[in-house]
Amino acid sequence: MRHFLSTQDWSQEELQHVLDRARALKAGASSSALAGKSVALVFFNPSLRTRSSFDIGIVQLGGHAVVLDARAGTWPMEMVEGAVMDGEAEEHVIEAAKVLSRYVDMIAIRCFPNFQDWTSEREDPLIMAFAKHASVPVVNMETIVHPCQELALMMALQEKLGRVENKTFLLTWVPHPRPLNTAVANSAVLIASKFGMNLRMLIPDDVYRLDDRYMSAAEDNCAAHGTRFEVMTDVEAAYSGVDAVYAKSWGALPFYGNWDAEAPYRAKGAGFMIDDAKMALTNNAVVSHCLPMRRNVKIADSVVDSPAFLGIEEAENRLHVQKAMLEALARDMDPAS
Amino acid sequence: MRHFLSTQDWSQEELQHVLDRARALKAGASSSALAGKSVALVFFNPSLRTRSSFDIGIVQLGGHAVVLDARAGTWPMEMVEGAVMDGEAEEHVIEAAKVLSRYVDMIAIRCFPNFQDWTSEREDPLIMAFAKHASVPVVNMETIVHPCQELALMMALQEKLGRVENKTFLLTWVPHPRPLNTAVANSAVLIASKFGMNLRMLIPDDVYRLDDRYMSAAEDNCAAHGTRFEVMTDVEAAYSGVDAVYAKSWGALPFYGNWDAEAPYRAKGAGFMIDDAKMALTNNAVVSHCLPMRRNVKIADSVVDSPAFLGIEEAENRLHVQKAMLEALARDMDPAS
Amino acid sequence: MRHFLSTQDWSQEELQHVLDRARALKAGASSSALAGKSVALVFFNPSLRTRSSFDIGIVQLGGHAVVLDARAGTWPMEMVEGAVMDGEAEEHVIEAAKVLSRYVDMIAIRCFPNFQDWTSEREDPLIMAFAKHASVPVVNMETIVHPCQELALMMALQEKLGRVENKTFLLTWVPHPRPLNTAVANSAVLIASKFGMNLRMLIPDDVYRLDDRYMSAAEDNCAAHGTRFEVMTDVEAAYSGVDAVYAKSWGALPFYGNWDAEAPYRAKGAGFMIDDAKMALTNNAVVSHCLPMRRNVKIADSVVDSPAFLGIEEAENRLHVQKAMLEALARDMDPAS
C-alpha cells in the first residue's frame, strides 16, 4: 500500500507511467479500477475544481466519492499524540483516520497551512498524521505541496513540448494583492527538476526563496539529471530563451504571520506580470498557471488568450492524472487484480 | 447545442414536447439519457428542493451530479471582459466556464440578483457569461427568471385543467415580511401567456409592475394568441372568474436597494393573502405557489389544505420536467443517439 | 411502512434480526435493497461520520443519498400546525415532508435540541412532525436519542461478549469542558436494558439523572427481563464487577438553558475520567465511547489504546447496522420483494 503525499516519494519512471496512463484515459480509455470502492474527499479548505475533478474521476472509475467539508474551525482536530484534549479539539486524528479507514478505500485530504507558524506548518502535520494512522492510501489534494497539480502541469508540458528533458522551465513570481500559500510554487520546482528540466526561478527579492526542503530537493533533482537550477531577480535575463513559463504568486516566508512588513518587498515585483514583451524574450515558450488566475494582474489577457497558454489544458489534465494515480494506488492495494 | 436559460428562447411546441415527456416520466417511463455523463450544479445561492430534484433526476437518468456551493462571497467571480482583476475576484468566468466544460457535460446555475443595482442585475450577467464561454449546455436553476418552475407549474395546470388555452390565469402579489426576488413572478407571466392563457396581474400599487422585459414579453405572447393581459389593483375584480390563481410576493423595482421606502406601498397589499372569500370569486379555480410558502401569510391554511391547491404537485413536477429538459438537451448535443 | 425513530418502538427480537443481518453484511454479504431508490439525509446539525456511513451504506445497497445541509438558521422551519408564519420560518414542515416524500424513498434526519427549553425539546418536535407528514419511512440520525449508535454499540458488545443478557453495563458520566446533548446517554440506557443487561449509571450528582422518559423506559425494560437498574454516585462501587463500561458526558437537565449554574455540580465529576485504576475494578470489562472522543479527558490513552476499547469497532458497525436497518425498512415498504 502506498500514499501519494509528494511526487518526491515516487520515481520519475513511476510518475511517467501514471502520466502515460493519464494520456490513455484522456484519449478515451475506460477503467473500473474503483468499482465498488469509496473514497473520502476531506476538505479542510474549500475547493470547487479539485472537488469536481476528484468526484467525477472517481465516478468514472466506477467508485463513489464522499465529500466531507471539514473546514478549520468546524472540525478542530488534535494532532499531538498523548495530548490532554481539554481545548477546542473534540477528536484526535488517530480516531478520525482509523474510522474513515473502516468506511472507505482511500482518503484524499486538502489542508492548507494556517499562515501562522511556518516552523510547525512546514512539517505538514495533519496529512502526515492521517498517513501514519490510516490503513488505506492517503492522497494529497494540496497542503504545502500540490502533487496532483504537478502531474497535470507535466502532462500539459509533454503534450505541447514532447520530451521536456533539458528544456528550460521558468517559475516566475507574479503580483497578487495578498500573500498566498507556497504550495504550487514548491510543487513547480519539484516536478520540473524531477523530469530533467533546467530550472529558473524569478523572484523580486531573495526573501521570496522557497523553503529549504524544496530548494534542496530541486537541487538534488537537477544534480541527478545534470541540469541547472538558477535563482534570478533580473526579469530580462530570467525570461531569456526559456521553453516554459509558469506563474505563481506567494508570500515571503520570513514574513510569515507578519505580512504587513512584507509589503515593500512585494512592491519590488510590481512589474512581474507576464505580458507580450516578456514572452518575446523566450524560446517561443508555452505559459501556464494553475487556476484560479487573476487576469491582467498575474498574466495579461493577450497572453492568456494566445495559443501559448496551457492553463485550461492543465486544469483538464487534473481529471486524467488523478484518475491514473487512483488507479495506480488501487492496483498497489490489490496486486492480484 | 442549446441552453435552457429562459422559456422565451423555446417555442410553445418545443416546451409542450418537454411537458409531454415529463408526464411519461412521471407515469414511470425510464431513460438513460445521461448514462456516463456528469452535470455540475453550481449554486451561488443555497437550495434544498432544487438541489434534491436535480440531483435525483440526474441519477435517475443514469448520470452523476456534482454539487458546487459557490455562494456569493466564497467564489467571487469576474464577469467583465478585459478587467484588471485586482479586486475581490480571484477567477474570471471565462476560465470557470471553460474548465467546467472540460469536466462535465452540462452546467446548471443558480444565481439570484444581489438586490443592489437592478440596472446591471436585470441583464443576468453571470449566467449569460457562462452561456457565452461554456462549450456545454447551460441550464437556469433560477436567476431573475425560474424556467424550471415555469414548466412544473404548467405541467400541474395541464394535469388539473386539461387544455389551458383561453383559460384565465391570475398572478397575485401576496404579503411577505421582506422584499423578494421577482424571478418567479417574471416566470409566471411568461409561461401563462406563452401557453395562451388570459393573464391578470393583481398588485397593491403600480410600483409592483415587473420589469419591462417581462411585461413586454407577456404582451407579445398574449398578442400572438389573441388573449388579454390586464394589470389590476382591485382584488375583487381581479379574482372574478379566473381559472387559476398563482401567489407570489416580490419587492417593488423602483425601491431596489432602498427598501425602507417601499414599506408604505407594501402596506397597501396587507389584505392580499389568498383566502376562502377570494377563492369564492373565481371559476372554481386551482391555486398554487412555488415552495417554500408562508402559511397564513401568503395563503390561508383552509386554501392550502383544500383540493384546489396544486403546490405539492407543482413541486413534484420539478423532478419530472427537469429530467425531460435534460434529456432534450442531451439529445441536441448528440443527435445521432 | 415503519419509521426508525427510537429502538423503543421495535421489539428486541426485531432489533436482533437487524443486528444479525448487520453481522452478515460486515462479513461480506451484499444487498441491492435500495436499487433505484433515493434517500434524503437531512442535517440540521453538521456531521462527518454519520454523513459518511449513511452515504456509503446507501450506495453499497444500490441506492443514492442526497445530503441536505439544513442547519438551524439556514432553513428555519415552522412545526406548529395552524401557525401564522410571519416570523423567521419560510417553510412549514408539512410541505417539506410532503415534497421530500415525492422525491425520495426514505428521509433520514439529524436534529439536536437547541439547549434552550427542554420542556418542548424533550418532545423531539421536528422529527415527530416529519414522521407525521412524510409518506415514506423516517430514520433518526440523532435527535434526543441516537438509535443507530445504540445498534452499533450492541453489535460491538455482542461481537466481544457473546450473549449480553444478565451481564452488567455501566454508563459513566465523564468530564468535558461543555454541557452536551443527552442523546447518547439516553440511548445507552435504552439499548442495554432492552437487551437484558443489568444497568448501572454513575453520575457526579443526582442532577445528572436523565429525563424521566428514558429512566422509566429503562426501568420497564429491566423489569421485563428481571434485571437490576442502579443509579450510583460512588465510583468504586459503580465499576465493581461490571462487564462493559460506556462513557458519555452530558449537561444536567435542571440547568438547561442556564449552564453557568451547573458548574459546581460538573466539578464533582472532575475525577470521573476512565483510567486503568478504575478498569481494574471491573470484571475485565470492555469499554467504549461514541466518537468523537476527547482523549485524556474522558478516557485515558492507556485505556483507549488497550484491547478492551471497542470504540473503533462500534464506529465501523454504524455502517453495517444502518445498512441492515434501511434494508428492513425497504422490505416493509414493499413486502412482496
Automatic annotation (TrEMBL), chains A, B, C:
The modification N6-carboxylysine is found at K298. Keywords: Amino-acid biosynthesis, Arginine biosynthesis, Cytoplasm, Transferase. Its main location: cytoplasm. PANTHER family: ORNITHINE CARBAMOYLTRANSFERASE, MITOCHONDRIAL, ORNITHINE TRANSCARBAMYLASE, MITOCHONDRIAL. SUPFAM superfamilies: Aspartate/ornithine carbamoyltransferase. N(2)-acetyl-L-ornithine binds at E142, K248, L291. Catalyzes the transfer of the carbamoyl group from carbamoyl phosphate to the delta-amino group of N(2)-acetyl-L-ornithine to produce N(2)-acetyl-L-citrulline. This is a step in an alternative arginine biosynthesis pathway. Its EC number is 2.1.3.9. Residues 2-159 form the Aspartate/ornithine carbamoyltransferase carbamoyl-P binding domain. Belongs to the aspartate/ornithine carbamoyltransferase superfamily. AOTCase family. It comes from the Bacteria. It comes from Hyphobacterium lacteum. Carbamoyl phosphate binds at S47, L48, R49, T50, W75, R110, H146, P147, C148, Q149, C290, L291, R318. It is found in: Cytoplasm. Pfam families: OTCace, OTCace_N. It is an enzyme of class 2 (transferase). One of its GO terms (molecular function) is N-acetylornithine carbamoyltransferase activity. It catalyses: N(2)-acetyl-L-ornithine + carbamoyl phosphate = N(2)-acetyl-L-citrulline + phosphate + H(+). The record marks E90 as: Key residue in conferring substrate specificity for N-acetyl-L-ornithine versus N-succinyl-L-ornithine. Transmembrane segments: none annotated. This is N-acetylornithine carbamoyltransferase. Pathway: Amino-acid biosynthesis; L-arginine biosynthesis. Residues 182-328 form the Aspartate/ornithine carbamoyltransferase Asp/Orn-binding domain. Signal peptide: none annotated. The lineage of its organism: Bacteria, Pseudomonadati, Pseudomonadota, Alphaproteobacteria, Maricaulales. Homotrimer. InterPro entries: ArgF, Asp/Orn_carbamoyltranf_P-bd, Asp/Orn_carbamoylTrfase, Asp/Orn_carbamoylTrfase_sf, Asp_carbamoyltransf_Asp/Orn-bd.
